[in-house]
TrEMBL record, chain A:
Protein's cellular compartments: Cell inner membrane; Cell membrane
Entry similarity comment: Belongs to the binding-protein-dependent transport system permease family.
Domain ABC transmembrane type-1 per the UniProt entry, residue ranges: 73-285
GO cellular component, one term: plasma membrane
Parts of the chain that traverse the membrane: 13-32, 77-98, 110-131, 158-183, 204-229, 268-289
Alphabetized Gene3D superfamilies for the sequence: MetI-like
Keywords assigned: Cell inner membrane, Cell membrane, Membrane, Transmembrane, Transmembrane helix, Transport
Protein name per UniProt: sn-glycerol-3-phosphate transport system permease protein UgpA
Membrane topology annotation: Multi-pass membrane protein
Lineage: Bacteria, Pseudomonadati, Pseudomonadota, Alphaproteobacteria, Hyphomicrobiales
Function: Part of the ABC transporter complex UgpBAEC involved in sn-glycerol-3-phosphate (G3P) import. Probably responsible for the translocation of the substrate across the membrane.
One family name in Pfam for this protein: BPD_transp_1
InterPro entries recorded: MetI-like (IPR000515), MetI-like_sf (IPR035906), UgpAE/MalFG_permease (IPR050809)
Species per Swiss-Prot/TrEMBL record: Phyllobacterium myrsinacearum
Automatic annotation (TrEMBL), chain B:
Gene Ontology cellular component annotations, sorted alphabetically: periplasmic space
Protein name: sn-glycerol-3-phosphate-binding periplasmic protein UgpB
Keywords carried by this UniProt record: Periplasm, Signal, Transport
InterPro entries found in the cross-reference section: Bact_solute-bd_prot1, SBP
Coiled coil: none
Purpose of the protein: Part of the ABC transporter complex UgpBAEC involved in sn-glycerol-3-phosphate (G3P) import. Binds G3P.
Location(s) in or outside the cell: Periplasm
Signal peptide: 1-24
Database matches in CDD domains: PBP2_UgpB
Amino acid sequence: MASSTHVTFPNKFLPYLLLAPQLAITIVFFYWPASQAIRQSVLREDPFGLSTQFVGLGNFKRILSDPNYLNSLQVTVVFSIATAVIAMGFALLFAVMADKVVRGKGIYRTLMIWPYAVAPAIAGMLWLFLFNPSMGTFAYMIRSAGYNWDPLLNSNQAMLLVVAAAAWKQISYNFLFFVAGLQSIPKSLIEAAAIDGAGETKRFWTIIFPLLAPTTFFLLVVNTVYAFFDTFGIIHAVTGGGPGKATETLVYKVYNDGFVNLILGDSAAQSVILMVIVIGLTAIQFRYVERKVHYG
Amino acid sequence: MTFRGTSLSLAFGFILASSTSSFAVTEISWWHAMTGANNEVVETLSKEFNESQSEYKVVPVFKGTYPETLNAGIAAFRAKQAPHIMQVFDAGTGVMMGAEGAIKPVADILSMGDTKFDKSLYLPGIVAYYSKPDGTMLSFPYNSSSPILYYNKDIFKKAGLDENNPPKTWPEVWEAAKKIKTSGAAKCGYTSTWLTWIHTENFAAWNNISYGTNENGIAGTDVELKINAPLYVKHFQELADLAKDGTFRYGGRTSEAKPLFLSGECGIFTESSGGLGDVVKSGMNYGTGQLPYDPEAKGAPQNTTPGGASLWVFAGKSDAEYKGVAAFFTFLSRTDIQARLHQVSGYLPVTLAAYEETKKSGFYDKNPAREIPIKQMMGKAPTENSKGVRLPNLPQVRDIENEEFENMLSGKQTAQQALDNAVKRGNAAIKQANGQ
């Protein structure tokens, strides 16, 4: 289409001026803090910053040989996969269902999108109020039914709770994109398949699902990043990383080591590792996977 | 499980609001971690101080839980935006003591005020905990408390227990808890806040056994933990066994177990004496008793240690501001204020005069619960096991203990394993904090 026409500015200065606000934000909110983190990661400092010592890669060595760090890596992988799969699975199901609704489509969609407006910490509190074993309404019902619901001590239940809260919040976002994706699939294709005798399930898996691939891939990356980073508020409010270290994700550990245990060097080194992970994820997205996805 | 997220944003709102108010008077910012009934006390005290004079204005700002308040203060100090006064919980004392350049000893500040500072006016046990080994008082003991036993009299009656005779030892607590559970008087027999503070730190002092070397860290920062000694192991194994059928209910790492007692789900409860305000507010038919001890321990009960928090003053402020802080602390030390603070909040009075006055007024005859923590703390001269616990990273060590306790209560490990792990991990963390 318009790929060959390249808009150029005659003025050499203007493009930089137009980019300046974005650059300023990136420098202030990304480059500057990132450089601080890298600096801190090779230092050893007391909490108040009164004495500082250069330790090279000492902090990294200690973290990578710490079994708690490896445990937290494992927790993060389990948590992220579970959250992404559940959030995307339900969103796709709801989107396909909402697509079939004839009357009141708008209302259904609006209602489905609402939870996205809830801040992670609030979502966490909401789930906590419902499922906290000492005061939660649902927790009370589950316990009355004879099931020993105690996410304070049972690590699987704690994980289930944070995954549910994190996925619940993300379903709306995914739903929105899946609805848009479904709308862009030509109706004629589906009708043609129906005339050829393909059933509903077959139509979904052979036509709709493959054509949704770009959306699905985009959401996969977004959901992974969400599960890695944006769920801090939920974990903080619901489990605080417990019981034991059962729900301590990498981001939560950065917070815990830095702000609770006041070991700034270790915390900074961990955030540098996280930064490398994100850079890696983004590289995979652009260099490798994006090329293989079929864009309709 | 906390309200951290919301409280942070609330606190942020407060800062915005307070920074726009009048600049005519010298403002003294006071960051604190008090919620519920105790937050009202903070607000009232500040208001009264501000109305009592016109030179200074104390602005209290709620900063979240105790650890959050400490972190907020440290972050603010690094950003050169430190408040004047910060409330730091007992476990943070070691952290603050290690930061000599960042704080100004309260002893220095109080000598700047109009009245002369006399350390002997304050309760010796409390002041000793907040002083350097050489005796310099570093922080102002605002709210000192000690753990005591609470019980629900209605549940005791229903279970056929003597409602006027609370259990005195841990075995008696276990018996009573089992009876509450089996009789169906309540769903759970016993619960407790702060397992670390009550069941390890105070357990050590009250039973006169060592928590760690170097007088539990009071004499020096180089400490090896001793909390896997047989008496601890026995105690925690008993707790873990009771947790299996729900006779003991775990509520969380800090004060989260409180609703379990207030809602009548659990019959017996160990918690800070500072929690009394909320128990009274709930309107329940409650009784109190001394913290239970282990009858197998020699010399038990010894004495409990001060918990709660003290007020630290940051370095680098102007003399006028320090004078304001001194005026505020002098106001807080006034006998009538201390006596009321003690009677309303359940925290200990920090001056001897306030204790004497409360005693004279006959307050304890009507409210015996308020005298329990004082008697617990002052009953016997402290030994090297019972002066309190001070570590350069006590919050972190408590976290390690909590993690191991949770894995024990869920049945993943025995008490012996949990405590051995806690000692091993705790010792390594202390070494790292000491820069070794």
